[in-house]
Amino acid sequence: MQRLIALLTVAVAAATGHGVAAADEFGFARKLARAAAEAAQPVHSAEVMVTGISDGDTAKVELDGKSVRLRLARIDAPEHQQAWGNRSEQSLRELIYKKLVRIKWREVDRNGRPIVTMTVGGMDVSTEQVRRGMAWVYRAYSMDPELLRLEANAREAKLGLWADPAPVPPWEWRRLKRDGELVK
Q1: Low-confidence residues in the chain, pLDDT < 70
Q2: Most exposed among 37, 77, 109, 165, judged by the fewest C-beta atoms under 10 Å?
Q3: Of the residues 74, 89, 113, 132, which is catalytic?
Q4: Is 89 in the active site?
Q5: What domains appear along the chain, each with residue ranges and CATH number?
Q6: How many other CB atoms are there within 10 angstroms of residue 94's CB atom?
Q7: Active site residue 79
Q8: From the candidates 71, 74, 131, 132, which is the catalytic residue?
Q9: Given the residues 79, 89, 128, 151, the one annotated as active site
Q10: What is the pLDDT of residues 114-156, one digit of tens each?
């Protein structure tokens, strides 16, 4: 990894015409090295049957003879206790429950769930949840312009959670709950 950082620093310096110190002033080489290391991780792929839905961005599947919970990549759906939480879960159920889906993943979240891209019938499930107004683009992990455009369209049309005049993003709701600031 150190060798990769050094090589990338020199490459950035050469490409920009600046010295090595200037090239790494903002940590570009480290960011590039981290991205390269992530890209080098193997992509796992499987076709699986969806056996359960936990909420608007989490499903259970049978994988290698085990029941595994999966987290949909790029989105964050309302929690059950939030407005639209149950409807978001129902939307995901309509899309994938008891259906054969294709999943791809590289990493797992802090709860040990694979973070997956999931398609059913050629449709990206995360994209569809956003299009329906049943989830936010999870900006900490995705700034996909197409997904952001679909979210803006759903907001403008007041679809799903966007019918609420002041929807609270799940990441903010979880923080408020954790900090004891959530007003019931």
Answers
A1: 1-40, 184
A2: 165
A3: 113
A4: no
A5: 2-40 (no CATH), 44-178 (2.40.50.90)
A6: 11
A7: yes
A8: 71
A9: 79
A10: 999 999 999 999 999 999 999 999 999 999 999 999 999 999 9
